[in-house]
Amino acid sequence: xxxxxxxxxxxxxxxxxxxxxxxxxxxxxxxxxxxxxxxxxxxxxxxxxxxxxxxxxxxxxxxxxxxxxxxxxxxxxxxxxxxxxxxxxxxxxxxxxxxxxxxxxxxxxxxxxxxxxxxxxxxxxxxxxxxxxxxxxxxxxxxxxxxxxxxxxxxxxxxxxxxxxxxxxxxxxxxxxxxxxxxxxxxxxxxxxxxxxxxxxxxxxxxxxxxxxxxxxxxxxxxxxxx
Length: 227
Ligand SMILES: NC(=O)c1ccc[n+]([C@@H]2O[C@H](COP(=O)([O-])OP(=O)(O)OC[C@H]3O[C@@H](n4cnc5c(N)ncnc54)[C@H](OP(=O)(O)O)[C@@H]3O)[C@@H](O)[C@H]2O)c1
Description:
Helices cover 34% and strands 16% of the residues. It is α/β, with parallel strands linked by helices. The chain has one domain: NAD(P)-binding Rossmann-like Domain (Rossmann fold), CATH 3.40.50. A seven-stranded parallel β-sheet has the order 3-2-1-4-5-6-7, with helices on both faces. Helix 1 (12-21) crosses helix 5 (193-203). The longest helix is centred in the middle third of the chain and has 26 residues, at 80-105. It is globular and about 45 Å long. The chain starts with a strand and ends in a 9-residue tail after the last strand. NADP nicotinamide-adenine-dinucleotide phosphate (NAP) binds at residues 7-14, 31-33, 48-50, 66-68, 89, 116, 118, 160, 162-163, 165-168.
């Protein structure tokens, strides 16, 4: 049984990972709100990762950091505070979590870290200046720490396209917007959180022990193909 720490397992992609991992592993969830489910293998800590001290956890094999933001505005409307806030939740929260848990993680079995980027870090998309900047920071962290921790702890990121969670609810708020989003993607679709969780589950498994320092686009072709 592995010990998995999920920062942000109360909803969205983190919750999909939590639900898939609970049966066979011990999951420690850290978020402001508790997940809806209770389970013998789940321990929840009500914590704001930016404001509060992170709880002590004695054994960890996997650390998954999910908090993020979608703050889409033209550059003229984005404030410096917007850039700071996006950097804080996407990068500083991840750094704080890694620094806190790395000493314990290093003693784990096949230890690994998963972070989240976005397709907008690679594909130039209007109004994404702040989130693209912050997620480029996440990708830099993955590269640098991948090298620094090589042979001890693996670290990878998943860069999803739009995924149906509360974070993207405003962008997918009616059927017409959903159909447009499907049409924009060369492979005609967008992500469900369970699809992203499937890749996260592979990346933290023994089967992925050769993989570190990578950013995996889950893009329904939007970054990869021009048709
Ligand atoms: N959804 C998309 O379309 C999309 C696209 C590209 C990339 N991504 C990235 O994928 C990741 C996951 O996205 P998602 O859609 O699953 O997001 P989500 O539905 O908003 O879930 C985020 C999770 O993080 C927790 N969280 C947020 N702020 C926190 C804080 N200050 N302290 C502690 N926990 C906090 C939330 O729990 P509480 O609210 O209970 O604290 C929640 O469990 C993010 O990094 C996002 O940028 C998502």
